[in-house]
């Protein structure tokens, strides 16, 4: 027996139209998928603040604490952003959204994120990162007018590359995790939709993004929780105790990069520009260009939290993690005007301030207990 969808109807359409209404000259009407997620919430809020019409879509899955996603939704609700609850694989829902509002841009952030979880639930990566991306691109190419698409790829596509810093032209054919493989597959699939249907598509390879309202499955987040609880933190080490490092990138810098990519999407200048009338197909690194070791990350957290961490140094497990990432951002600087400004110390200071405030309430303390099972 087919159940009626949880979306649709006059009141629902009214909320969709109001949320997507453009409130500034030359404003854009943007669909942000994954809007209840960490990056999605910040990007949706930034676009709304400048007067764009913004509509969200998210399935509020339980990969990590859905209460945190609901709390982000409440923030966007107050800003006038409606997040439609649904799955990006729901073709009828996507078609309905494009029918109800003239969407000019899609910022596609919905995905199964996280590198290590792929060992536990590989199917979720195919469902959201491959099938889900195809569903979004199918809806975009069928829409009239077609929206420009900006979507999140990942630094993990550089896989086992040893030449740093990573540039967009470097090889990406040796993924270390299923997550990375689905993001690489996404880049190839996006190229097909640019080639056949002339979709303007910009892929953004984010480098380990962190900040307030972040993800409990990421190390900076659960390290903070465990340090405060006096629980041991496992610091991964490479072969011969070599450090493991990431080009940690603060959320506000990533948001500026995403908004610049939206504004640049329609233009045909720069790499992948219009050739023989072809719509642009571009890929950019969005990183911080200053990798920091995990061990130094923990030291900064100890200093900010004023608590000594209980440290365990363990050999990096074969779980799909790579030893280091480091972004060459020359192309994004030149074509998007992307210039990261936040050091890890100052970014973590803002995260810790948010963390202490958010988890100070009893309700969210209980939530953080539930979260632990995912990230430990
Ligand atoms: N945070 C990082 O360090 C980082 C780094 C590189 C790339 N990325 C990519 O950036 C994007 C956003 O990441 P994030 O850190 O905000 O993660 P997140 O998990 O907080 O956000 C993703 C959101 O998408 C939603 N979602 C997942 N599958 C869906 C589906 N099938 N239908 C509808 N909604 C679905 C989730 O409920 C979640 O709210 C993802 O594509 C991720 O792979 C993130
Ligand atoms: O840039 C990306 O594309 C990715 O960024 C993020 O992945 P990562 O860079 O792996 O971040 P994260 O898990 O926080 O581990 C941070 C560091 O701590 C190390 N790490 C981890 C766990 C632990 O217990 N100990 C440890 O040392 C670990 O080895 C690593 O060196 C996103 O989650 C992912 O969605 C993906 O998009």
TrEMBL record:
Source organism, top-level taxon: Eukaryota
The UniProt keyword set, sorted, is: Isomerase, Membrane, NAD, Transmembrane, Transmembrane helix
Q: What topology does the record note for this protein and the membrane?
A: Multi-pass membrane protein
Instruction: Identify the EC number(s).
Output: 5.1.3.6
Which GO-annotated molecular functions does the record name? UDP-glucuronate 4-epimerase activity
Q: Does the keyword Cell membrane apply?
A: no
Q: Which Gene3D superfamilies match?
A: NAD(P)-binding Rossmann-like Domain (3.40.50.720)
Domain NAD-dependent epimerase/dehydratase: start-end pairs: 30-266
InterPro entries xrefs: Epimerase_deHydtase, NAD(P)-bd_dom_sf
Keyword Ribonucleoprotein (UniProt): no
Q: Which reaction does it catalyse?
A: UDP-alpha-D-glucuronate = UDP-alpha-D-galacturonate
Q: Which GO terms describe its cellular component?
A: Golgi cisterna membrane
SUPFAM superfamilies per the record? NAD(P)-binding Rossmann-fold domains
**Main subcellular localisation:** Golgi
Cellular localization per UniProt: Golgi apparatus, Golgi stack membrane
Its family?
Belongs to the NAD(P)-dependent epimerase/dehydratase family.
Task: Name it.
Answer: UDP-glucuronate 4-epimerase
Organism expressing this protein natively: Zingiber officinale
């Amino acid at each position: 027996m087919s159940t009626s969808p949880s979306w649709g109807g006059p009141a629902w359409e009214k909320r969709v139209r109001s949320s997507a209404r453009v409130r500034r000259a030359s404003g854009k009407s943007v669909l942000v998928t994954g809007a209840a997620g960490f990056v999605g919430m910040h990007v949706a809020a930034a676009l709304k603040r400048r007067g764009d019409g913004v509509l969200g879509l998210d399935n509020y899955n339980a990969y990590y604490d859905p209460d945190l996603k609901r709390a982000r939704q409440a923030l966007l609700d107050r800003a006038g952003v409606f997040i439609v609850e649904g799955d990006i694989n729901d073709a009828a829902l996507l078609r309905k959204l494009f029918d109800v509002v003239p969407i000019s841009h899609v910022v596609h952030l919905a995905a199964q994120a996280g590198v290590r979880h792929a060992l536990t639930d590989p199917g979720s990566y195919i469902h959201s990162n491959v099938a889900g991306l195809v569903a979004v691109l199918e809806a975009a190419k069928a829409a009239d007018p077609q929206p420009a698409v900006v979507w999140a790829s990942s630094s993990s596509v550089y896989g086992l590359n040893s030449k740093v810093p990573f540039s967009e032209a470097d090889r990406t054919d040796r993924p270390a995790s299923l997550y990375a493989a689905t993001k690489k597959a996404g880049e190839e699939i996006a190229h097909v939709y640019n080639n056949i249907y002339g979709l303007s598509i910009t892929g953004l390879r984010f480098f380990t993004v962190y900040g307030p309202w972040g993800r409990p499955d990421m190390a900076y987040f659960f390290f903070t929780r465990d340090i405060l609880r006096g629980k041991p933190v496992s610091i991964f080490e490479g072969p011969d105790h070599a450090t493991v490092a990431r080009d940690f990138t603060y959320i506000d810098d990533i948001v500026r990069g995403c908004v610049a990519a939206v504004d640049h999407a329609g233009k045909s200048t720069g790499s992948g520009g219009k050739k023989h009338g072809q719509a642009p197909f571009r890929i950019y690194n969005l990183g911080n260009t200053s990798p920091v070791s995990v061990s130094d990350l923990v030291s900064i957290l100890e200093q900010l939290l004023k608590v000594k961490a209980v440290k365990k140094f363990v050999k990096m497990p074969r779980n799909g993690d790579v030893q280091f990432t480091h972004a060459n951002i020359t192309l994004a600087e030149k074509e998007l005007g992307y210039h990261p400004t936040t050091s890890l110390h100052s970014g973590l200071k803002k995260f810790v301030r948010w963390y202490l405030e958010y988890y100070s309430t009893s309700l969210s303390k209980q939530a953080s207990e539930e979260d632990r099972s995912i990230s430990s």
